[in-house]
Design goal:
Immunoglobulin-like; 6 domains; 9 helices
Length: 840
Amino acid sequence: MLLFTLLILVVQTVTCSEVHSRQKRDWIIDSYEMEEGHPGPFPYSLGKVDLNSKYQVFFDLHGEGVDKEPKDVFFIEKNSGEIFVKKAVDYEKHKVLKLTFEAKKSLDFTVDTRLGIEIIIHDINDNPPVFEKSLYEITVDEDASQGSHIHTVLAYDEDKSGTPNSTFHYAIKSVSPETSNVEFFIKETGALYFKGCFDHEVASRYTLLVEAIDHGEVVRLSSSTTVIVNVEDGNNHLPVFTGQTGSGKVKERETGFSPLRLHVTDEDVFQSKAWRARYSIQGDEEGHFKIETDTKTNDGVLTVVKGLDFKKGAKRELKIFVKNEAEFFSCKVKSRPSTGLWNVDITNDQSGGGEIRYNAKEVVIEVLDVNDPPEFDVTVKEASVKEDAPIGTWVEKVTAVDPDNTTSRDFIYKIGHDPAGWMKIDAQTGNITTKKLVDRESSHVVNNIYTLIVQAVDNGKPPMTGTATLHIHLIDVNDNVPQLDMNNLEICLSDGPTTSNISATDLDETPYGGPFTFELVGDVRGKWKLDPSYGFTAGLVRDSRVYAGVYSLKVKVSDMQGQYGVYRLTTTVCSCSVARNCRNRSAPTFNAGGAVGIALLSLLLFAVALLAAISFSCKENFTDMDTVSPVGNIQDSNIENPGTDCKVPNNPSTSDGQTNKNSLKTEKKWDWTKTEYFNDTNVSLLHNQSEDYRRKYYWNWSKVAKSIHSTSDGQRNNSLKTEEKVDWMQNKYINYRKWEFYKYRQQLLEEWMPSQIHLKVRSFQETEEDLPEYKPHIYAEEGDADIVSDLDSITIPDNASFDELEDLGLEFQELASICMSAQMQIKSKNTKTIYMHHGI
């Protein structure tokens, strides 16, 4: 039965193979093993691929180790299928190599079989442990305690992790130098420790050789590193005093002086923290001294920082202690047990400060007596005085004493600082009185307080001075009247009443200042009123019946005590439909008139300059007329009159034919009103024209001004001085509308005008004999000074009373306010009426 079954299977297989192509056997996994770093010889056989085939095939190999990295490691014999190794493989780079095996038919080279092959690389102990650094250098303090962690060294092994080949341990192979006070040890983690005590004087540097050894089964590999341990000097030696220099004496009250310098020595390393000294003082509870370290010599420098008083003692006894910046540390090895840490004896500030005996030195400072300044019993004193106090009023008394016992005790009082010069002091008693009237409103007074510095100066050698401060509180009085903040006001016209604010100020304080009472003086009913009239600001109300114009109002301003001042307020009422205020409204008229005036004035000054240059060169000396009068002299006019002119040549040109421009001077004034072009008739012609015609004329005349500006620029700036002159010039010359300036400008300046001037001068010279003789008129005060009328003497009786002069009426008050200067004040004893003048 079994044979029958096998026969059926064979028949079916043969039948299928004849009908269909044979199915390929693909990805049948096979694996091989090899050790890394095989010593050879190469090539050697790794194994053979077994493949049962009834027909001939060729073998081929692809993948890692053949045509992929690492390349050219394996090859396969094409006919037998045996795999060979051509070179060694590193396990640390490639732990498994994956390849593809193919069997191809020899007839058509089609793939018959494809296999996936894995080659496993076995690790061997071919890598020793490697340290991160070949050299470690560290520094430890000399006072480090045994068992302290010094440093950690690290190594790594590239062999397979978890195998004996990659497992290692650390060991200290050698220590140089070997000393009996220190022993180093290392733990399995690579951490370095020590036992015992470091001593910088015994060894300042240790060199350790540390090894890392792996645990390979066949062979053990190792590597080493060097660790250098530098021992920094600690403070295991205390500083010791060796002496002192200096006088040990200091003058009382003297500061910044060093009476002593203390010297020490230390066996620790120079300029280290263990060597640098630090000093302290005992017995100086009041803080008169300080001691600092000289960084170069390590000396202690004692300095006086707070003045000493001889009266409290002629000597000061101090105790100076010295130690180092670094804390003191001492370590001694007592025994060395085989296990654990050693037994050591440690002394420092933490473990037993009482056992450390720091060095100390006692010093004596002698205090020398000197002249002390006088001392005021109160250095800051308060006083008060009214600001209207009369000169000589007593203010305060200051008192000082001289603490000296051996020097002179005599001293005098003086004013040290008196900003306004108001005070004086009695040199012997210290009484302070006023020598001028004080003013609370002065800039030297701050918050109603006037500060005075007084001094007491003794007669020692050198003289010493004590100082005190006196704060004088000035009590306010009603010595100032309210002041109107403005003297000009502009109001715009409107259909109804208009209100404008006026304000006042008073330098006095309450209750002598504001709020104020405002009043209008004079007959202003139905025109002006004040609403409100009480406060710091009043409202000036213009009635609708007040038309445009300038009004002079008298405003009376009274303070809370009735003290008042009367002021003139100039009020301008105008229409503000064109400009926002009256001042801007008048500005365009001024500018237009100024342009016309400058143009005309420049032209005429040029003509005047020609005439003045000609006449000035030969003018005769004018003799002043002496006048004698017991009451004064009339100012000499020295005005030339016709007939005193000298003759000029007929040809006004110079020899070279050119006009001498340097001779043009403006020494004489030209009477423009007598020329035929500038009479009143011609002026009225332009006024009768329409507004458009006059505006066109102004524009034409402005062009004239620009054309002559270049020839008379030097005259223009000196000609027009005030707004009034500009207005006058404008009104005089606007009638010159028919003068066609552009057509005849060159002819006028170069030909016609010089000839006209020359003819006019000649006419004066020809009629010189017919001119009348001018003689000065003798007035009544001129003449003989000896003739003086006698005046009757005026006798005023002794019982005459001047009380009636206190109230002379409003008109006299107005006259007085006009005549008085701004600084003058008229005060009445009862009402204290004051009239202020605002330059009206």
